[in-house]
Design a protein that fits this description.
Blueprint (H helix, E strand, L loop, with lengths): L30 E5 L2 H10 L1 E9 L4 E9 L2 E7 L4 H13 L4 E10 L9 E10 L12 E3 L5 H10 L4 E9 L7 H9 L2 E5 L2 H11 L2 E11 L16 H17 L2
Parallel strand pairs: 1-4, 1-5, 5-10, 6-8, 8-9
Antiparallel strand pairs: 2-3, 3-4, 5-9, 6-7, 6-10
Helix pairs in contact: 1-6, 2-5, 3-6
Amino acid sequence: MIKYSNEEGFIKPIGIKFKEGQDKNIKLPQVAVLVFSHHLYEDVIEKFQCKEVGYISNTNFDKNVYILKYKNSEIVFTMAGVGGPNISCDIEDLSACGVKKFIIFGNCGVLDASIEDCSIVIPTKAFRDEGTSYHYIEESDTIDMNPKYIDVFISILKEYNFDYKMGYTWTTDAFYRETKEKINYFKNNGAITVEMEGSVIASVCKRKKLDYFTFYYAGDNLDCVNWDERSLSGLSNIDKKKEVMILALEFAIKLI
């Protein structure tokens, strides 16, 4: 049982944390890019001008938060926490420090074999097969996603000659419990992807009145007799994934 409460949380987000010598009163830029791949995260830090300004602590590990300079614009940049509880805390802590618009992206599994490896998927609705979102908004089977900015993002995809598909996603907590029965159920109800954070991102941002956009690059294929890993491994097809990273940065500067 999950009991929903409309009250504000007893524990308030305190924002990012700081190392010795860092500015504890910093107000972050309003637009943030969060990426789930640590390979892409590290590649950006190496290639671009990134100033470390603090860190997010997720109980048993820390991840740095940067102000990234891209084409003379400043963007918050950090690695996204995997799973509903982690990504909800990321959004809570960054918004407490001034972030108002979130671009969050990463890999997804596909429930439609025609979706090519590393192609872009824009989710428009999520099935809420997880727990965190039910603490942010009232119970429902689905939640609409990406209410803003789809046209802006599609214009960037066309500029960079990226194929894309739009459709429903299935957000689940337990990837080892993605059974054939569930795959068929969600596919038959319109889902074309499966991932672990979509409905949570939408729910947290809806409750907190934050703007967001989340999208995926296609990875493993579940629309087959036996699971097909395709480019799920982080370094597999990495050059194409690096191009997706540029899409997110180009998108971010259009939202500033």
